[in-house]
Amino acid sequence: MPTTFRDLPPVVWTLFAGTIVNRLGYLVTPFLVFFLASRGVTGSDTSYVLGALGAGHLLGPAVGGVLADRIGRRPTMLIGLIGAAAAQGALFLAPGVWTMAAAALLISAAGSTVSPAAYALLADAVDSERRRRAYALFGWGVNIGTAAAGVLGGYLAAHGYWLLFVVDAGSMLLYALVVTVRLKEPKRPSGSGREKEEFGYGVVLRDRLALLVLPLFGIQLFVYSLTEVALPLAIHDSGLSPAVYGAMAAVNAVLVVALQPFVTAWLAGLSQLAVQSAGSALIAAGVALTGLADGVVGYTVSVVVWSLGEVVVAGIAASVVANLAPAHARGRYQGAFGWTWGTARFAALTLGVTVYTSLGPAVLWWTALAAGTAAAAATLALRARIEHRTVHTLAA
To answer: Quick one: pLDDT at residue 280?
Structure first.
């Protein structure tokens, strides 16, 4: 383990380990279309269930951010984990399309309430100098668990879809047990009288710098999300088998898991915003290279490029948002960031696919390159303001 992670407190390592356990059980969502088909749900009915799943990712972070600041980090995480585990059972037992859609909405909404609380807890546990490393370690745990889940899910699905639900719900309950036993609710500043009374996201909406940064991160996340949405379409249109997409996912997983801790250590002394901008430009270039690929080698090159960008930016965006947040509003700032992430992913699933199919792949790839590099440059232009804000917050 690189020395860059060794001085992180036990809270960070507990969240890292719990996240690996939780993501090892991330099985139902990737195989949901196959499960629905096994229940006779196809065509437009499938889109209702998937649409509900996507809508939950927009609702959950906003609710999770408010709850994290209002009732605490641990209670919010427990509500999300236990609620999502219960929803897994509801989805498996659901008798019809609309009950399946309701259960899918609850799975994604409850599950996505956890991240704002966990991210706020990380911000509580470490100072601004170590936050990027803490968030990078947390993200590394997500990637380790997700990579292993991809292999485990294929094996379990072949032996019965009920196994996916059992393992997925069980991993959430195990993470909830870790939260209960190993984590303590931190003492947080209560804020002024007005801040105590404020319940929603007014504190974020009044922050002009945050309102500049979050949309820029959203554009960068949209471009990255195209790797999940448009890449399989491109591989299919090239006449290649689904196994090629599986191989590309494996290339990404191996690179991220193997390189992320070392690259984080190597780049630790550089400006976070400069690194974020460079990495985002690399992701945009890698995604755009998909448009030039027409075989396994070409797609592998593009995946390697954007995977390196993913490694470079690990943990930075969440750390920047945490450094902008007042101590009493860290949950809501992370909720706003989570909502931005969910919106970007939803836009990739809808707008990205529409552009690809209606206007043509070339339009999407050039748009991704232009938007990604422009957002990276704009982020870099805000470097002085963000760093000044961070220094001011530390002084206060």
So the answer is: 95
Q: Residue 219: which of 271, 270, 284 has the closest Cα?
A: 284
Asked if pLDDT for residue 19 goes beyond 60, the answer is: yes
- Single-letter code of the amino acid located at 119: Y
DSSP string, 177-242: HHHHHH--PPP-----HHHHH--SSHHHHT-HHHHHHHHHHHHHHHHHHHHHHHHHHHHHHTT--H
Please tell me the predicted confidence (pLDDT) of residue 2.
56
Helices and strands (DSSP H and E) totals, the chain? 19, 0
Contacts of 258 (CB under 8 A, 6+ apart): none
| Cα(114)–Cα(120) distance, integer angstroms | 10
Burial class of residue 290 in the structure, from the number of CB atoms within 10 Å of its CB (0-12 exposed, 13-18 middle, 19+ buried): buried
% the chain with pLDDT above 90: 49
In angstroms, rounded to a whole number, what is the distance separating the alpha carbons of residues 220 and 238?
A: 26
Write the pLDDT tens digit of every residue in 62-112.
Answer: 999 999 999 999 999 999 999 999 999 999 999 888 999 999 999 999 999
Q: What pLDDT score does 190 carry?
A: 60
Element (H, E) at 103: helix 97-111
Question: What is the DSSP code (8-state) at residue 278?
Answer: H
Measure the CA–CA gap between 40 and 45, rounded to whole angstroms: 10
Count of alpha carbons within 13 angstroms of residue 131, beta-carbon side? 24
The pLDDT value given to residue 191: 58
Cα–Cα nearest to 17, from 5, 27, 33, 29: 5
Give residue 243's pLDDT: 75
| pTM for this prediction | 0.88
> In angstroms, rounded to a whole number, what is the distance separating the alpha carbons of residues 128 and 122?
10
Establish how many alpha carbons lie within 13 A of residue 32's alpha carbon, considering only the half-sphere containing its beta carbon: 25
CA distance 171 to 101: 22
With vertex at residue 296, the alpha carbon angle to CA 292 and CA 298, rounded to the nearest 5 degrees, is 30
- What is the spatial distance between Cα 220 and Cα 371, in angstroms, rounded to a whole number? 8
